[in-house]
Amino acid sequence: MLTFGTVISIKQENKLEIFIMKHITVLIISIILGFNLTAQSNPEKDKEAKEILDKLGKELKGYETMVIDFKLAIKSADINENQSGKAYTKGTKFYYNTEDRDVYSDGESVWTHAKEDNECYIDAIEDLDGGINPAELMTIWEKNFKYKHFGVKNGVTEIRLYPMNPKESKYHTVILKINATKNRLEKVTIKTRDAVTVQFTITKLTPNTSINDSKFKWIAAKHAGVDEIDNR
C-alpha cells in the first residue's frame, strides 16, 4: 500500500530523474552546438592550442548543417550510461536521438521525449539549465575558458579547457581530442562541478546536408499516447 511518505518519495525520485535528464540534455546540446570553436588572444590561453582551435573553428563555422553520428557515455555516482545516437543541426535548431530520448529544438523551445516514461517535457530553451540558452554555447569556448595544449598521442591532440571563473561555471574541465592533421574534432569530455562526466565521441560527421526544418520540431500527432508536460 502506498503511504503519504511513499508518494512523496516517488515524486522526489521523479523530480530527480527529470533534473538529471534535463542536465544531460543541456550537456549534450552544449557539445553539439559547441562544435564551432574560435579562440581569442589571451595571456592565459596557450598559443599552440589557439592555432588548432582557430583552424578547426574556421572550417566548422562554414558548415550550414551537420549530421553527427556519436557514441555517448555518462558517468556519475547515480548514472552509468553508454549509448549511441545521431544529431542534426541547422543554425540554432537541433535534433538528436539516443536509445533513451529524442530531443527536438526549433531554436526557441526544447521537446525532450523520454521514451521509457512515454512522456515529453517541453521547455523554453532559455529556461534550461538556469537560464543559459544552449545556442550561446557556440561561443562559450572563446569567452569563458582558458585552454592548454596537452600533447599529441597517436596523431590526436589533446586540449584542455578550464573556466575563467570556476565558481560561476557548471563546468570543471572540458577535454577536446582533435586530429589536427585532418582538422577534425574526435571526442569531447565534459566534467562538471557536480561530478557528472559526459564523454561524446564523434564517429562520423557529414556537413552541409539538406535538412527540412520539420526535423527540429516535436509533432504531437505522430506520438499518440505520449503525455506532454509543458513547462513554458
Quick overview of this protein structure:
The chain has 232 residues and is α+β, with helices and mostly antiparallel strands. The protein is built from three helices and twelve strands. The protein has a single domain (11-107, 133-211), classed as outer membrane lipoprotein receptor (LolB), chain A.
Topology overview:
Layout: H1 4-33, H2 47-60, E1 65-75, E2 80-90, E3 93-97, E4 101-105, E5 109-114, E6 119-124, H3 140-144, E7 145-153, E8 156-163, E9 171-179, E10 184-192, E11 197-207, E12 227-230
CATH class call? Mainly Beta
Give the low-confidence spans: 1-19, 130-139
CATH homologous superfamily label: Lipoprotein localisation LolA/LolB/LppX
The run of helices and strands is HHEEEEEEHEEEEEE
Approximate shape: globular
Distance linking N and C termini: 35 Å
Strand order of the largest sheet: 7-8-9-10-11-1-2-3-4-5-6-12
What average pLDDT do the residues reach? 78
3D architecture notes:
This protein is α+β, with helices and mostly antiparallel strands and 232 residues long. It has one domain: outer membrane lipoprotein receptor (LolB), chain A (Clam), CATH 2.50.20. The protein contains 3 helices and 12 strands. It has helices spanning 4-33, 47-60, 140-144; strands at 65-75, 80-90, 93-97, 101-105, 109-114, 119-124, 145-153, 156-163, 171-179, 184-192, 197-207, 227-230. The chain has a 12-stranded mixed sheet with strand order 7-8-9-10-11-1-2-3-4-5-6-12. Strand 9 and strand 10 (184-192) form a beta hairpin. The longest helix has 30 residues, at 4-33. It is globular and about 55 Å long. Mean pLDDT is 78; it is low at 1-19 and 130-139.
